[in-house]
Amino acid sequence: MMDMTRNDKNPLNGSHAVEVRGLVKHYGETKALDGVDLDVREGTVLGVLGPNGAGKTTLVRILSTLIAPDAGTATVAGFDVVRQPRQLRRTIGLTGQYASVDEKLSGWENLYMIGRLLDLPRKEARSRADELLERFSLTEAAKKAAMHYSGGMRRRLDLAASMIGRPAVLYLDEPTTGLDPRTRNEVWDEVQRMVAEGATVLLTTQYMEEAEQLADQLTVIDRGKVIANGKVDELKARVGGRTLRIRPVSSADVPGMARSLAEAGLDGVAGSQAVPDEGVLLVPILSDEQLTAVVGLLAARGYAIADLGTYLPSLDEVFLSITGQKPSSEDSAQQTEEVAA
Ligand SMILES: Nc1ncnc2c1ncn2[C@@H]1O[C@H](COP(=O)(O)OP(=O)(O)OP(=O)(O)O)[C@@H](O)[C@H]1O
Ligand SMILES: [Mg+2]
After folding, report:
1. How far apart are CA 10 and CA 119, in angstroms?
2. Which atom of ligand 1 is nearest to the CA of 55?
3. In this predicted model, what pLDDT tens digit does every residue of 22-64 receive, in sequence order?
4. pLDDT(282) > 80
5. Residue from 29, 30, 63, 225 whose mutation best tests the ligand 1 pocket (most atoms within 8 A of CB)
6. Is the pLDDT assigned to residue 335 strictly greater than 70?
7. Are strands 242-248 and 305-311 parallel, antiparallel or unpaired?
């Protein structure tokens, strides 16, 4: 719903920290954004998912006032991206997809300089630099020039830089692409800490695990259009329904169970699937009634069941199902490393 009562004097008074309506950006024939609507509620994380070229970075650039939209509107903390770019920039932090630190300066100098550019007093800029280097495990490398940092270290420095001014709204464009799992976890912890302190985050990612870990709400875009929208579990339920996993006491019963369900028409459109190695039968479930009937039938036929439970599809499966493509995090991980190297 549109919030027409926004109050520019008290920008975070409304419930949406970011509001985007009908956003369009074309590059010649390429429709990078083709009428995008989205909202990020204050104090939450919106995950923007989409395959390569979907328009994620274009969206982040417009919301950062780095490029202008062709049509549509966007406000951040109540400030319009076109009409109030200066006020808007003061409320945001940005970690771009590609590292943007000054090569010749040390890690500490990079952070201190940004702090000073943001008008922090010297003492605070100094302590903020120390604190963020510590949080991102860069204390030992603090005095080294950024040009000697590894790709992962640059990424962490970049993230630290975007957090210096404690922005109310933080954009993270594929923040952990190319990072090792330990560093990725550090970044996730830090993002969660910022959110706990009240920040609003718009995160683009191709890592489904990252979306699951961090995002309250997901928006999937493809070729410049929003194609799905909702909480992680809502998207999973919408796409695939649940799967019932049944393990009989005797794995020799699996084929017989499958036959009984098929005869009774209880195994869903695609049919049930035996996993002989694990001695389990997987049954696609579309309704609570079907679930009850499946369990009832197997009990009536005298099958002894050792274990059963339902699970939702993985977010990878959801992504594949709605975009027709696998999330291609490996490709972009390599790209980022090359650019950073
Ligand atoms: N400056 C530009 N000039 C021409 N075309 C552009 C420009 N920037 C982006 N595009 C095109 O717009 C589309 C969206 O690009 P964008 O970088 O926003 O995608 P993305 O979702 O961030 O992709 P990735 O996952 O690879 O980072 C792509 O087809 C891209 O080639
Ligand atoms: Mg991008």
Report:
1. 22
2. 18
3. 999 999 999 999 999 999 999 999 999 998 899 999 999 999 9
4. yes
5. 30
6. no
7. antiparallel
Does the CB atom of residue 290 touch ligand 1 within 6 A? no
For the stretch 229-267, pLDDT in tens is 999 888 887 776 788 999 999 999 999 999 999 999 998
Query: DSSP assignment, residue 277?
Result: G
| % the chain with pLDDT above 90 | 57
CA nearest to 42, candidates 81, 15, 73? 15
Ligand 2 centre distance from Cα of residue 97 (Å): 6
Name the amino acid, one letter, at 14: G
In this prediction, residue 8 carries a pLDDT of: 43
Q: Which one of 58, 223, 330 would you pick to mutate in the ligand 1 pocket, going by the greatest count of ligand atoms within 8 A of its CB?
A: 58
Instruction: State both tokens at 115.
Output: 């702090």
Beta strands in 82-131 (DSSP E): 92-95
The DSSP line for 243-276 is EEEEEESSGGGHHHHHHHHHHTT-STTT--EEEG
At CB < 8 A and 24+ separation, what contacts does 182-191 make? Answer: 183/137, 183/152, 183/155, 183/156, 184/210, 186/135, 186/136, 186/137, 186/156, 187/136, 187/156, 187/159, 188/213, 188/214, 190/135, 190/136, 190/159, 190/163, 191/45
Distance 53 CA to ligand 1 centre (A): 5
| Residues with C-beta atoms within 5 A of ion ligand 2 | 56-57, 97
Q: Give the strand pairing for 92-95 and 169-173.
A: parallel
